[in-house]
Amino acid sequence: MMTRKTRRQVTAPVSAATVVKASEAASPGAQASQKHRTLLAVGSLLLLALVIGSVLYSMRGRFADSPADTTAMGIPEEGRQSSYVGAAVCRTCHEAEYRAWSGSNHDRAMQATSPDTVLGDFADARFRQHGVESRFYRRGDRFFVRTDGPDGKLADYEISYTFGVYPLQQYLIAFPGGRYQALSIAWDSRPKAQGGQRWFHLQPDRRVDHKDPLHWSGNYQNWALQCAECHSTGLRKGYDKTSNTYHTTYSEISVACEACHGQGSRHVEWANRVRPPYPAQGDIGLSRLGSNWNEAWKFPADGARVAMRGNPADPAGMNVCAPCHARRSTLSEERKPGAVLEDSHRLAMLTAPNYHADGQQREEVYVWASFLQSKMWQSGVTCMDCHDPHSLQTRAAGNALCNRCHNDTVYDVPGHHRHLSGSKGAQCINCHMPTQNYMVIHARQDHSLRVPRPDLSLSLGTPNACNQCHRDRKPEWAASAMDRWYGTSWRDRSSYGPTLHAGATRGVLALPDLLDLARNTVAPGIIRATAATLAQSHATPATLQTARQLLTDPDPLVRIAALGLLAPAPPQIRIQTAAPLLSDPLRGVRIEAARILADIPADRLGAERQAAQAAAMQEYQVALDLEADWPSGRLNLGILRLRQGRSDEAVAAFEQAIVLDPLFGPAYVNLADALRQLGRDAEGEGVLRRGLAHMPRNADLHHALGLMFVRQGDQRAALRELSEAARLAPDNPRFLYVEAIALHSAGRRGEALALLHRANQRHPGNIEILAALTALQ
Which residues cross the membrane (predicted)? Predict the structure, then answer.
């Protein structure tokens, strides 16, 4: 589904758990800046920790020089757990599949350096970026770079591994503590005619020095943190949070057979025992994956516009793709091949800044959630219908791929696409899968496969495929052209964009439509779950009925979002509604239920629920431990400990988050608030000022400091800090509201009213702003 399977780690995921506001001092909706989380180069998805409503390094790792070094070749006894055997063993029976996979981007996702694997120019090549000149050179078959290191000084580093192949290749360098750091200067492996065969920086417009967390030697460019899970097979991160070191292991260096099919020893045992003809069903000691794509899709009648699928495909074939092609966080490393994503990972919803208002890709989101929105997904199309799972190539070239299911006499003609046959505009993907560049040069198609909607570009500010090609024209021109070609009925096609856009911009006024969309079982689950997620900040007793209804939904994404609607509810209501989901079949749902009930003493749940709560909470703790190398992971742990009344542990967790990233603002805010709860407000002031020394323009820190001055009765200092927070973050309605209240308290009622009126225009439907306007008038 992507040119390269990597990339998923760094972005990640949506933190293992959503976090609720710790207290008034923690600004709701605060989110770590997108720049602060620019992903690791080749393989990534950045972890998005949602904090306060939504915010958010001696030993060398144990790496194998070749797959055989870590492959278990023996066959386990009957009943023993399966183990990895390696692709070479699979080849003995599956030569065709092995040949297709060999040389693919999965096969070459990560490789030990050699003249055969390194694509970049190491013939004493020079690259200069923001005053730093880096030199790439060789010593025999070893490859080196001289560049600025963690102290800002030029030093020589040996390249240990290559990362990715096309359209770019990155390079990993060994550091103490089991770390491998991804160099931010990458090799453009495209042909020279396409602008390739050159060195380039992954952050060309930003000066990233050794003090910046995004520097190649920093935490966020760490292979194990960001990318490893999706570039190797059988990977275990092996992070030790006490020593802050890694002991990472894998069964094979690349994405090999068992990354998708699971550990193969039981299958080898089965294969040694049975003889052809082999059974089409039953336990073969391995996950059966396939879509029967060639036989499954048939046109129901001559002249039919679209082919239909005879029998649904086994969802396991799709599910194996999801973990590495989704923006998500990891809940467990114990994933069963083909299992539902929500049993091992948590998927990011279709919200800003990752997605545009109508669900189109914006930041690096890795395809999965885009495809879940599509009519193709709803009609039973699978990844393997379009992509060969071993070579990763599409099953046909150009429009021929689409024409297998869409009648070419209807769709592949000027009467449909309104462009010259054979032209760029006549290619299906250019209208229905527009591209976005990630990592500077990696153009990826949007897999939501939508019809272009230039009219929504006008009302929602979203992009459209027409104007991606016709950059010199405006959306009005594109919409008028479509009116001439197709009439105006295309404008009436249903779109979830307006509702989701309203959910992000119109506050409580959007709540009824959000709840209607969340209940709409015809809509894709990812859309419904996003609607419920947007409704969470407006949850009231009136939303409880909808929440209860959604808790029984068959889609786990919807159940997880419904649990979030219960977060503000009183304890007894949460016990009655959320406790049953502590025993949900899927880990992700159980973990969210545990989070929602984290402040409830076990004895209030009843004997039948106590064991389920303990088990789910243990799963939650495992998920947090997996993310303990992320500052946001430590932050989420601290917020959990606060809710459990374990304040000293919360303080320690927040401090650890700051050690991992001194520029992680939410950690300072939550640490200061935890100290307030412990009666140590003076220490909290010191924490906030320490944060502001690193980040003087951080609005959350100014706001928290202002609230502290309110508690101290220093009205002038409070208003100064609260006003600065609102000035730095005018899109945060809470900051505007609090500034207005502070102005009114200072006897400046006219200024307060004027500010509230401006805030209401900017943030219509915000309950606090509306209530304040009513009260003051």
Answer: 38-57
Output the CA–CA distances (angstroms, integers) from residue 705 to 50, 52, 508, 667, 710, in the order listed: 21, 16, 28, 14, 9
Q: In terms of domains, do 242 and 304 share one?
A: no
CA 629 to chain centroid: 17
**In a domain? residue 493:** no
Which of 666, 673, 668 is CA-nearest to residue 643? Answer: 673
CA dist list (Å): 474 to 165, 356, 434, 523, 753:
37, 18, 17, 30, 38
* Residue 160 lies in domain: 67-246
Number of domains in the chain: 3
- Same domain (yes/no): 242, 319: no
Distances in Å between the Cα of 217 and the Cα atoms of 120, 128, 213, 721 are 20, 18, 8, 35
Nearest to 532 by CA among 27, 91, 18, 80: 18
Contact 307/294 with Cβ under 8 angstroms? no
- Tell me whether residue 668 is in a domain: no
* Cis geometry, peptide bond prior to residue 167 (ω within 30 degrees of 0): yes
Same structural domain, 306 and 421:
yes
Query: Is 396 within 8 Å of 288 (Cβ atoms)?
Result: no
What is the distance between the alpha carbons of residues 228 and 504, in angstroms, rounded to a whole number? Answer: 34
Q: Residues near 774 by Cβ (< 8 Å), separated by ≥ 6?
A: none
Q: What is the C-alpha to C-alpha distance for residues 395 and 377, in angstroms, rounded to an integer?
A: 18
Q: For residues 75 and 218, state if they share a domain.
A: yes
312 in the same domain as 408: yes
Is residue 188 assigned to a domain? yes
In angstroms, the first-to-last Cα distance of the chain is: 56
Only one residue has tokens 């091992």, namely 344
Closest CA to 202 of 233, 240, 164: 164
Contact between 287 and 319 (Cβ < 8 Å): no
The domain that holds 745 is classified in CATH as: 1.25.40.10
Q: Per the domain annotation, does 109 fall within a domain? A: yes
Cis (ω within 30 of 0) for the bond into 463? no
CA distances (Å), 317 to each of 116, 226, 287, 335, 446, in order?
Answer: 33, 25, 9, 14, 21
| 78 lies in the same domain as 206 | yes
Residue 237 and residue 320 share a domain? no
The verdict on 320 and 239 lying in the same domain is: no
* Residue closest to 418 by CA, chosen among 373, 374, 359, 469: 469
Q: Which residues contact 108 (CB under 8 A, 6 or more apart)?
A: 117, 162, 164, 165, 254
Q: Provide block-wise average pLDDT over 10 residues at a time, the chain (777 residues).
A: 32 28 28 32 29 27 30 33 93 96 97 97 96 96 97 97 97 97 98 97 93 94 95 96 96 96 94 86 84 89 93 91 96 92 97 95 96 96 95 96 96 96 95 96 96 96 96 97 96 95 93 97 97 95 94 98 96 96 98 97 90 96 96 97 95 97 97 95 95 97 97 95 96 95 94 95 91 90
